[in-house]
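Q: What changes when 2-acetamido-2-deoxy-beta-D-glucopyranose is included in the input?
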Amino acid sequence: MKETSVLCLLFLISLLSCTTNQAHLTVSPSRSQFFKGDFVSLSCEEDDSSAGWTLRRNTSKRQRTQCGDGWGKPAGSSCNISYIYTSDSGVYWCESREGPISNMVNLTVTGGSVILQSPVLPVMEGDDVTLLCKTKTTPSNLPAAFYKDGSLIRKQPTGHMTIQHVSRSDEGLYKCDISGHGESPSSWITVTDKHTTTPPPTSTPPPTSTPPPGSTSITLPPSLSPPLLSVLLLIGSVYVVVLLVLLVLLVRRSVHRKPKG
Ligand SMILES: *[C@@H]1O[C@H](CO)[C@@H](O)[C@H](O)[C@H]1NC(C)=O
Ligand SMILES: *[C@@H]1O[C@H](CO)[C@@H](O)[C@H](O)[C@H]1NC(C)=O
Ligand SMILES: *[C@@H]1O[C@H](CO)[C@@H](O)[C@H](O)[C@H]1NC(C)=O
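A: The predicted holo structure follows.
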């Protein structure tokens, strides 16, 4: 009976991944700005291991190059850049042989001494977002000024600011400045709509309010728009539940039929 439950679970998982066909691009450490010389690891995480996702990028110099082709070191499903250069700035994505692409990520590498640590992945409407302004050399946080679309929005003595309950109007180009050290590059913060199918914010803590030291991931359908995806997911879930019930009934019947001893 144990084996059959495990089988059921595997079946459920594989069905779910079939209905969603997701690709994830994760960045570790999870941020969009880096100092020259930093270590960065990017990975294409696939639900269906046969899909064969490849990490690609566009920089100002070359387009659509893949990991290992003059940059990065393929390491399993990851691509490690052990010493990132300013010329590694660009847009990164995962692409399958069949064509669908994952979420895209903008990475900016500075030769300067200040970076803005902002979410590298889109943030969900209603979440809290913490921005941190950091220098390369000073370990402690210094007072910083934060700008959105070129105008000063806040001066913070602790070097970080939190935008509570982000909305679409918070979307924009952010940068920060530390007196005596300089200005960070600018990075886009993208805000995505909250889906009607997602649980209320009280049951899921916003991932951005406490940025994990490791990597975060986002899942985007390769070609489907969010409302269509929700409908497909709903249909998929109903389908899975019906199949599971049928499977459990079948297993029960066969177990009962077995002669004892
Ligand atoms: C990358 O560059 C190619 C060729 O210039 C272009 O067609 C494509 O849209 C670019 N992709 C991204 C994600 O910017
Ligand atoms: C790539 O980086 C990961 C850490 O993110 C590390 O565990 C792995 O050993 C690295 N692989 C290579 C080939 O450098
Ligand atoms: C990447 O940056 C460009 C501007 O440089 C912006 O238009 C685009 O939306 C950004 N993409 C993501 C995924 O943040």
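Observations recorded in class: The radius of gyration is 22 Å.
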